[in-house]
Structure formats: C-alpha cells, structure tokens
Amino acid sequence: MKKSLKQWVGVGTTVIMAATVVAGCGSTPETSKQPAASPGATAANAKPFAGKTISLVAANHPWAEAIKPLLPDFEKETGIKVNVESFFEDQLTQKLTVQFTSGSATPDVFMYRPLQEGKLFYKNGWLQPLDDYAQKAKNYDFADFAKSAVGSTTVDAKLAGIPIITEQEILYYRKDLLQKAGIAVPKTLDELQAAVKKLHDPKNEMYGFVARGQRSPLVTQVSSFLYSEGADFTNGDKAAINTPEAIKAFTTYGTLLKDYAPPGVLNMSWPQAFGIFAQGKVAFLTDANSLYQNAIDPAKSQVADKVGFAVMPAGKAGSKPYSITSWGLAMNAKSGNKDATWAFIEWATSKDIVLKTQQKGNPGARASVWDKPEGTTGFPADLVPIIKESSKNGVDHDRPTVISVGEARDAVGEIVQKLMTGETNIQPVADKANAALQAIMDKDKTK
C-alpha cells in the first residue's frame, strides 16, 4: 500500500494540478494555493496536500465499508483528511440534490448511481468532467477500465464519474434439475424457453422461470432480452420500444413470466424473485450477478449448493447482457478542493485499491484485477468467467438513458405488464408506450 501510494503521488501530482486548470470550474484552482510537490520532494516523504480536508458522501454499501479501513493509509501518505458521511440510497440522492441545488461546494466527492441520476446531475452542472484528470494521470491506466463500465459514467461524450461497482445480468439455474432432466444449460433464448417449459411443474410447486415482474423494476432486467434481439430503448434521439425486435424481446420475457412463473410475479422485484428461487421452487432466474449471495448463501438459500451461473442466453443479435456501472465516484463541480478530490478518486480507483475492495466481494471495473487470481477470491470460482465474459460483450445501460428515468421506466414496464395480464396483441400497447417515451425524451431536452 505505502509503496503504491508514493508511486502515484510522486508522478501524478503535477499532472493533477495541470488537469485542474483545464477541467476545473466554479472555484479558484488549487494550484494557486497549494504548489505541487516535485517527485523528489514526495520521495522524501513530503505530503503534497498537507492540511487539506475533503468530504466524501457515500452510500450504505459494501464498497464504502471496504474503503473506510483503508483511508488512514491514504491520509498518512497525502496529508488529506477525508470526512465521510453515509446514507441509504434514497437519502443519499435527496441529500445530494438539496446540496447541489443550493450551490454547495460540499461534498467534494460522492458515490452516485450513473444510470439513475447521472444525466440529471450532469445536465444541472453538478458533476465535474474528469476526462483530463483520468487521461493525464500517469500510471493510472484509465484504459484498464471496462469499456461498458466507462460508457455508463459518460454523459454527452464527457466522463462524469469513475466506475467503482459493476453489474451484469446473468442466468441462474438449478444444476440438479437440469442434470436429472438431461437438459443442457441454455445458450439461446429459444433453448431457455424450451427448458423452462419442460421443467415447469406447478402441481408440485416447481415453476420454470422467475424474474422481476413489477412495472418499474422489470425494465432493467428485460433490457438484456432487448439487446440480445438487436433492439434498444432508443435509437439516437428517437424512442424505439415498438420495433419488431423489441416486441419479440418483450413477448419472450412477458410470456415466460405469464406462463411459467410463480403466483404473484406481477408484484415481484428482486427480493421476492430471489426469495422463491432460494426456496427451491424455480428452475431458472435472470437477474444481476451482484445479487448472487441470495442464491448460494446457505443462510438464505435452501438450494445453495445446487445453483449454477451462465451468461445471458443469446437472441438474434447474440448474447448481449447489460454490463453497467451501478455505482461510481464523482466530483462536485463546485468543490474548492478539486486537486485533492481527484487525488482521492485516483487512489480509490487505482489497481491496488480496486484489488483490495474486490477481494471483499465488490465487483470492480478494472480488467487487470479480474485477470489476477487474487482479484477473484471474493467470488465463486464458477461465477468469475461468467462475469468476465458478460463484461466483454455487455451493453453500458440497463434502462433508457434519459433525465426522467422513473417516468421512462414506467412507460416501458407497461408493455410487459399488459402482456403478463393477458393482452395478446401488444403492438398497440408498445406504440402507445413508445409515444410516451418519446414525449419524455423531448421534454428532457428543455430541462
């Protein structure tokens, strides 16, 4: 730890200072207040940011719990004091919105959900673009981050944050049931539907498939079905959820839930879906890999030793799961401590620290860490190749990339729910939803 910190502080400080002149806005550049230490001075144990204090607002999340014990080492090497506050997700968004709306210079750095509030925060001028910092920082190796993860944190071609937690949609399945029935692990959506139908036995409380059925929560999970059929929520600045490819994807997902899911699926989000899968009553489940503990933890699952993992089954366009940044680190555009804030972000997302946080079960975005045996110790051995393959083939969003995310999710989710409740011709439903999504997108342009 100590060696790696000195390496990046020694070679990176001058770059950090120069980058702030280019990228900084809304405050006086720190370079006029805190001269950059030379590599030689740093080697002599100088602290380039001695006396500086930055504020970090974090979510109540395992990544935050993993990073907190490492902060004393960062503070010792840099002289930066990091004050941390933690909040539940909804409280976090509310706090950040209130702070930023008032023009506050704090927090300096914060955790955020790029696909949920990233576009809104960026459009409001609350996020400091980090392109110059990331590209010019020596030994940071920004190219090591997964392309899809970076795509999630990019808004209008600008890097709005740095990925810290990634997530992909995968297929969970019961190894024992497939083996007993002589069924191979499905590699295509057609094969999945056939296997689901064969294993569906509701009279004996065995259901073929489960996934999120609630109107808004289902949208992120149907996204991988869309991409795998060659569809997407939008095409440029046009809504695209009523195309033939989209209709096929919605129909596949909706039919699996309507015909082969347990009762009550219409009201299920991930806790309920994983709950009934863990009770041993379902053969297949599609959802986020980050939730795997709910399926294999003996304390939560009655089938913990019988669960297998597979990549998202392929449609016409191949296997195209979402592969996103679910949590990122961002800098307040009005921070008065931008150089010190970047120093923290650079450290927290460096290869050494990502290795340490990933060993605690936090899936990071650095390819080099996933390629190290010691970087995968926090995950089941048979899940690691699934994560790596999904990351390479994945799409960088799991919902419409708009400002009004909640409204957009409701519009999309309506299509699947109508099918689940018995609508046989969903083209008119999709046309109506597409018009609603287009109206949302057009309205967002005025914000």
Automatic annotation (TrEMBL):
InterPro entries xref list: Bact_solute-bd_prot1, SBP
Keyword vocabulary terms for this entry: Signal
Position of the signal peptide: 1-23
Domain of life: Bacteria
Family matches, as SUPFAM superfamilies: Periplasmic binding protein-like II
PANTHER family associated with the record: ARABINOSE-BINDING PROTEIN-RELATED, DIACETYLCHITOBIOSE BINDING PROTEIN DASA
Protein name as annotated: Sugar ABC transporter substrate-binding protein
Species of the source: Paenibacillus alginolyticus
Taxonomic placement: Bacteria, Bacillati, Bacillota, Bacilli, Bacillales
